Amino acid sequence: MAGKKKSPLRKCIVTNEMKPKKELIRVVRTPEGDVLIDHTSKKSGRGAYISANVEVISDAKKKNVFARHLKVKVPEEIYDQLLEEVEKG
């Protein structure tokens, strides 16, 4: 009786929706203090998940949500990279 493997759920820091991990993008603050997009979801450090949606990312940029969650100043380029990735699909 091999059942379906459950997909782990994570919460989007903007919408507070629980979604499968694969539908979200992880941004991580490394132990050195760098902030980067974690495509593998395996980098060490404090992570925060955001929905892969242009409106949600724009909202996060306006409210500077990552700075609060990661407890570090987040460069504008991170938001721009996230928007680029979502727009190109």
TrEMBL record:
This is YlxR family protein. Residues 10-82 form the YlxR domain. InterPro entries: YlxR, YlxR_dom. It comes from the Bacteria. The lineage of its organism: Bacteria, Bacillati, Bacillota, Bacilli, Bacillales. Pfam families: YlxR.
